[in-house]
Automatic annotation (TrEMBL):
GO molecular function, a single term: monoatomic cation transmembrane transporter activity
Species this protein is from: Pseudonocardia broussonetiae
Subcellular compartments: Membrane
SUPFAM superfamilies referenced in this protein's UniProt entry, alphabetically: Cation efflux protein transmembrane domain-like
Lineage, opening ranks: Bacteria, Bacillati, Actinomycetota, Actinomycetes, Pseudonocardiales
Keywords: Membrane, Transmembrane, Transmembrane helix, Transport
UniProt protein name: Cation diffusion facilitator family transporter
GO CC annotations on file: membrane
Single biological process term from Gene Ontology: zinc ion transport
Membrane topology of this protein: Multi-pass membrane protein
Amino acid sequence: MAGHGGTRAIVAALLANAGIAAAKFVGWLITGSSSMLAESVHSVADTSNQGLLLLGGRQAKRAATAEHPFGYGRDRYFYSFVVALLLFTLGSVFALYEGIHKLESHEPLTSPLVAVAILVIAIGLESYSFRTAVTESRPLKGGGTWWQFIRQSKVPELPVVLLEDFGALIGLVLALLGVGLTVLTGNSVFDALGTIGIGLLLGAIAIILIVEMKSLLIGEGATGPVLSRITDGLVGGDVHVRTQYIGPEELLVAAKIALTPGLPVEAVARAIDAAEGRVRAAVPDARLIYLEPDLDRTRTAPV
């Protein structure tokens, strides 16, 4: 089920990426490494992304209006989708361009040890950010795999931060390999290949996030145990149910339930209120519930 937006993980990632971006730009200016430049732009994009995630969380808290009666919970999905697009354009495309340019120009590195030192420090900072994201995500992940968490989570920020941090760590390792092999062999092609590897990695991560955030943005319904708890709360599963997340922490439930024919209006109202109460007790995120009597179907007792 949906939970908190992982604000601690987002802030940790923002601070780490801002410091890393500054250090990488200094390293690029000193060394001329294309891997360092690609990683610098990557870190700037990541820093901007964390800011967008925080903005999305703030926007989602706005009160419902006549124009938006269900509130603004999907703002979190929208800003997460924008983050995925930025990761692809500013991270992947730029890194691929820079790597190909480096292959063609064969520009040598200067002061490569500076780049190595900065990359090692960046790996330490990214590891802290990644660990924070893992810690924040673990309660929501439950007994499933991390891949299942990324695919099924209704909280968009944590999968975004997890994949960003994971991609950043692997990218730093690729950059370190590129610079290291260039130093050992004197051939700058390894720095260029490291940059291209970073671009391909970021592209793959961005595509995964784009697909998942688009699915959340257009509306996903409850599945598995959550849907079972809803139908059980409506008694016996003799219902027609449609669900949709209108925000990470708000689930719209629409159900057509069978009632005993001939019930007075007051009894129908009591039965619907009781069913709604049971569903909300079983699924706290189901805050908006609309139940409609199915007068064409009969039961021996009211729901």
